[in-house]
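Q:
My hope is that you can spare some time for a protein that puzzles me. I hope you can help me see how the letters and the tokens relate. Thank you; the sequence and its tokens follow:
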Amino acid sequence: MIKELKYLFFILIICFFFFFTLKYYFSDSNKKNSYRSLKETDYKIINFSKNLMLLNSDTDNVAVYVQQNKKKNKKNFNFWKLIDTND
């Protein structure tokens, strides 16, 4: 009998926990606070982005492209052929 009452007590505690958690989550005060925090975060981002200093690009004409050698008599190597031959 005590074991069943203990289980009932545990189930009631868990149900109350979920009930009060959901009640707070869906309450108007929580929604207002969440919207206020989102609005405040957006305001902070806008202010921070206005104060950012832009740097000039110094990477113009830095990369030099090399033309590949177009020799037709280039010897092609195969990995397994290199292992098989003992020359």
About this structure: The first helix runs from residue 2 to 25. The radius of gyration is 35 Å. The CA atoms of residues 8 and 34 lie 35 Å apart. The chain is about 60% helix and 0% strand.
